[in-house]
Specification:
alpha+beta; Aminopeptidase; Nuclear Transport Factor 2, Chain: A; seven-stranded mixed sheet; 7 helices; 13 strands; elongated; disordered C terminus
Length: about 290
């Protein structure tokens, strides 16, 4: 048997999503709200490609064939929480623990590659197979929503599970450092206090702006003075991010005033879990007061 692998879904996978979501041995265990129609499933696949940090629909492959599906969506951007759901393995591949290996890969991808801190999911109490799977792959049972859902003509419990990055033995990634920086930056915009953001920079860090008539700034004190004298007035959202080597991360960002319009790039070079250099580019240029 080939090792299971996961990949982000593409429109060519639509027929498999439709088939599996409506399979008689799969549908009864999916959320009643889970889409099953081709149009809605295609819209989700396209959204996954458009918003890779915040929404995902994935295919599980084994033996060179599609074997299952799984997904996530952001639950809390500031705290970097993702909700998982829609895991389904085709009956032809059951009994081979393909879902276990796929789930472990998915955990590492969401935490290390996409920078999430917490993963959570909820399972119908009658789905004993899914509950056993969640426990095998490291999710911690955190509680019960009693008689929370109407399914198959009766009220059923929802079993809640969670996993945090400290549960996995993986090193901190550059994308995690960048997402932490964005949270601290946005907190500074709201509060006018920049000390938390500045703590992330090394003592000799460099910050530069391309497309704006300021900087560069060398050293944490110079960066602090720049934010004190010319504080930004809008928060940012990451659109996507890629770690090119062990130190450099490049991400597209948008201002929250225009969340669907790419404003430029953030190019972060780290030293461990600190920022050694941050270059901010502005695609359309800015005027600086």
């Amino acid at each position: 048997m080939d090792e299971a692998r996961i990949r982000r879904a593409e429109p060519r996978d639509l027929d498999f999503f439709v088939e599996l979501s409506n399979h008689a041995d799969v549908e009864p265990f999916l959320s009643a709200r889970r889409p099953r129609e081709p149009e809605t499933l295609l819209a989700e696949i396209e959204r996954s490609l458009r918003e890779p940090l915040h929404f995902g629909r994935f295919v599980i492959e084994a033996d060179g064939r599609r074997a299952g599906i799984m997904g996530f969506q952001v639950e809390n951007r500031r705290s970097r929480i993702a909700s998982l759901g829609g895991l389904a393995v085709h009956p032809e591949f059951r009994g081979r623990r393909i879902s276990d290996e796929a789930a472990r890969q998915f955990q590492r991808h969401l935490i290390r590659d996409l920078g999430y801190h917490r993963l959570q999911l909820e399972i119908y109490a009658f789905n004993e197979r899914a509950i056993a799977h969640a426990e095998r792959v490291g999710f911690v049972r955190e509680g019960v929503r009693r008689r929370a859902y109407r399914r198959h003509g009766e009220w059923v419990d929802g079993i809640m599970f969670g996993l945090v990055r400290e549960d996995l033995d993986v090193p901190v990634s550059g994308i995690e450092v960048l997402r932490d920086h964005v949270v601290r930056f946005n907190d500074g915009v709201r509060s006018g206090q920049w000390s938390s953001m500045l703590e992330q920079f090394t003592e000799g860090a460099r910050m530069a702006f391309e497309g704006a008539p300021v900087g560069p700034f060398q050293g944490r004190e110079a960066i602090a003075a720049a934010y004190r004298d010319q504080p930004p007035d809008d928060e940012i959202e990451l659109l996507d991010a890629e770690e090119l080597d062990g130190e450099l991360v490049i991400a597209r960002y948008a201002w929250t005033a225009e969340p669907d319009v790419a404003a430029g790039e953030l190019r972060l070079r780290r030293a461990g879990d600190e920022i050694a250099e941050l270059v901010v580019t502005f695609d359309r240029g800015v005027t600086w007061s």
